[in-house]
Amino acid sequence: MQEFELKYGCNPNQKPAKIFMQAGELPIEVLNGRPGFINFLDAFNSWQLVKEIKEALGMPAATSFKHVSPTSAAVGTVLPEKLKKACFVDDIEGLDESPLACAYARARGTDRMSSFGDRLRSPTLAT
C-alpha cells in the first residue's frame, strides 16, 4: 500500500487527509478501523518510545499514548498480586510467563482512564 486515506486530519471536524509514500510501501498495516492523523502520530511516537526503552534496558516494553502524549510506559517484569488486581489482570492465567504481556498489563492498567479509547493504536509493544 502506497497511500492510505485517513478518517480525518488532526481533529474530527477536519476534512480527511492522506498519508503516503512517494516510493515504496507504507511501513504500516491497519488491522481494524479507519484511523485519523493523530492516531498515526500516537502510533509512531509510541513505537519510538518502546524501541528506546528496549534498547536501553534490554527488556520487553509497552506504552500507551493519547493525543501525542504518553499516558504510561512499562517494562515486562512480573506484577505483584496487588498491582494485578489494580490493573484488572489478576484472573489471567499464565501472565507471569510472558514478559511482553506483563509490560502490556502495566502500561495499560496503571492509567486506564487516559488510555481509554486508544483502540490499541497504542499500546505499542517491543519484544
Give your account of this protein's structure.
The protein is α+β, with helices and mostly antiparallel strands. It has a single domain, classed as Cytidine Deaminase, domain 2 (3-Layer(aba) Sandwich), CATH 3.40.140.20. 33% of the residues lie in helices and 17% in strands. The chain has 4 helices and 5 strands, in the order ββαββαααβ. It has helices at residues 37-57, 81-86, 99-109, 112-115; strands spanning 3-5, 18-20, 61-66, 69-75, 124-126. A 3-stranded antiparallel sheet has the order 4-3-5, sandwiched between helices. Strands 1-2 form a two-stranded antiparallel ribbon. The protein is elongated and about 45 Å long. 30% of the residues are buried.
Notable characteristics:
127 residues; Cytidine Deaminase, domain 2; three-stranded antiparallel sheet; two-stranded antiparallel ribbon
Would you summarize the structure shown here?
By secondary structure, the protein is α+β, with helices and mostly antiparallel strands. It contains four helices and five strands. It has helices at residues 37-57, 81-86, 99-109, 112-115, and strands at residues 3-5, 18-20, 61-66, 69-75, 124-126.
